[in-house]
Amino acid sequence: MTTIAVLGAGKIGEALLSGLLDGGRDAASLLFTEKHPGRGAELSARYGVEAVSVPDAAARADVLVVAVKPQDIEPLLADLAPSLKPDTLVVSLCAGLPTSLYESRLPAGTPVVRVMPNTPMLVGKAMSAISPGAHAAEEHLALVEDLLSTVGEVARVPESQQDAVTALSGSGPAYFFYLVEAMIDAGILLGIPRDLAGRLIIQSAVGAAAMLDEGGQHPVILREAVTSPAGTTIMAIRELEKHGVRAALLAAIEAARDRSVELGKATEDR
Ligand SMILES: NC(=O)C1=CN([C@@H]2O[C@H](COP(=O)(O)OP(=O)(O)OC[C@H]3O[C@@H](n4cnc5c(N)ncnc54)[C@H](O)[C@@H]3O)[C@@H](O)[C@H]2O)C=CC1
Ligand SMILES: O=C(O)[C@@H]1CCC=N1
């Protein structure tokens, strides 16, 4: 079985390890590296996956999945480059970082695949978008697709769209959590106990998500079906429009896209 090492086991690195194990992968085929020893010991105990050094991971794994913050990439690549075996596939989960950055720091010809996943990976419902670097072939894309399809859905996109994808689905879960949080607060405002408000809103979110996912109907049709003439929903929609919620979402997602571009540029400037 292919050995996979996750370099940097923070939130998304852990989500990947946990998702792969839940998807049936053997713990012996996984490795991870973690800068903080306490965190490494905690994860090894929780998942039964071995924590190793970056050079050990490079020596033993067929696929290296980079999951450090973009700001931490340079020391990691400097540590990795001397011990990387030819043909080891490098998979980047980092926002903003182009495949060309890896190609310029790692041995010539290293295949790199850029991925933007999201945290629902923890429950097997990730949305991941993948793009090949200059030396990644169909076999590399197929391998990454196979790996990530055990933890959710996978789409192939041109690398030029990865910053936009990062703003949409990479950060996307946070927007929904924010909305749920605000709606629970509205319940508190209306005098509903917090526990009950949470149940009402979370189950509404789960139900709405299932209708979007399974029904095949456009969100506009689904919203119209809830919106009765002179009823309650249209009163709420009027307030959402008045407060510019749609425009706020467009501006927010554009700002996230711009930040992803900026994170990539910061590495080019070094
Ligand atoms: N959190 C999210 O929802 C998503 C994050 N990403 C990307 O994943 C990457 C990681 O993000 P998070 O997991 O949120 O960050 P995090 O800060 O939770 O995890 C990063 C981990 O890498 C470790 N680390 C840093 N340098 C290291 C090194 N040289 N060797 C070994 N371990 C090292 C840190 O100790 C930390 O545990 C980022 O590049 C981010 O853009 C992508 C999609 C979604
Ligand atoms: O906020 C971030 O930068 C990362 C990338 C996508 C989701 N979280």
TrEMBL record:
Q: Give the record's keywords alphabetically.
A: Amino-acid biosynthesis, Cytoplasm, NADP, Oxidoreductase, Proline biosynthesis
Q: What is its EC number?
A: 1.5.1.2
Pathway(s): Amino-acid biosynthesis; L-proline biosynthesis; L-proline from L-glutamate 5-semialdehyde: step 1/1
Pfam families reported in the protein's UniProt record: F420_oxidored (PF03807), P5CR_dimer (PF14748)
Biological processes, Gene Ontology terms = L-proline biosynthetic process
Boundaries of every Pyrroline-5-carboxylate reductase catalytic N-terminal domain copy: 3-96
Q: Which GO terms describe its molecular function?
A: pyrroline-5-carboxylate reductase activity
Give the enzyme class. oxidoreductase
What's the catalysed reaction?
A: L-proline + NADP(+) = (S)-1-pyrroline-5-carboxylate + NADPH + 2 H(+); L-proline + NAD(+) = (S)-1-pyrroline-5-carboxylate + NADH + 2 H(+)
Question: Which GO cellular component terms are attached?
Answer: cytoplasm
Q: Where do the Pyrroline-5-carboxylate reductase dimerisation domain residues begin and end?
A: 159-263
InterPro entries, sorted? 6-PGluconate_DH-like_C_sf, NAD(P)-bd_dom_sf, P5C_Rdtase_cat_N, P5CR-like_CS, P5CR_dimer, Pyrroline-COOH_reductase
Q: Which NCBIfam families match?
A: proC
Which family is annotated?
A: Belongs to the pyrroline-5-carboxylate reductase family.
Q: What is the protein's given name?
A: Pyrroline-5-carboxylate reductase
Q: Native species of this protein?
A: Actinosynnema mirum (strain ATCC 29888 / DSM 43827 / JCM 3225 / NBRC 14064 / NCIMB 13271 / NRRL B-12336 / IMRU 3971 / 101)
From the broadest rank down, the organism's phylogenetic lineage runs: Bacteria, Bacillati, Actinomycetota, Actinomycetes, Pseudonocardiales
